[in-house]
Design goal:
Layout (H helix, E strand, L loop, with lengths): L26 E5 L6 H13 L3 E3 L11 H12 L2 E5 L3 E3 L2 E3 L2 H12 L4 E6 L14 E3 L4 H16 L9 H16 L6
Parallel strand pairs: 1-2, 1-3, 3-6, 6-7
Antiparallel strand pairs: 4-5
Amino acid sequence: MDNRIRRNEVRIVGLPRCDFVFSSTRICFIAYGFENSPLEVSVLRRLLEERGIQAEEAGGSIAPGQNVFCAKICSKIITAQFCIVLINNDEIESREIPNANVNTEYGLMLGFNKYVLPFQRSSQRLPFNVAGLDTIKYNDRDFERQAAQAIDQAIAATRQDTPPPLNPDQVLEAFLLRRRALITPITTE
């Protein structure tokens, strides 16, 4: 995950320019099937609020006259400190059907390299394309505990007040710059 302050320059759909700044707000975007997870979302909202993070969701806002995808989803994911996705399947006639909207939002989160907390009921199965990703499986008894722990980890990992650890490329670049400075002769005129 990239904690540097950076502007999104790639427009997905909609506005002629995006220019939203990644992780520039203390919000958490929550993607979920509106009919599937109301209890979980109310728990998540409370846990986030207790920690000073505002919960944001596509269904919680109205954007008349605006591109809905940009205004309600994409821009919120970009500016969110981190994201949560409830990948609970719709159950229709005893069959589990993955929610296309939720999976699209999940894909966008991953594409933007966001810190994502994916949750799914332990009784359900993940779709094949995300089955390999670490997902927090839960039941009614342990959801709140697992969510609180995961949110605390996400807040610690996405804090903006401390610089992120240097990656190996940054260490090498700093070494080479320092080496050049030591080797370059100082001239006085």
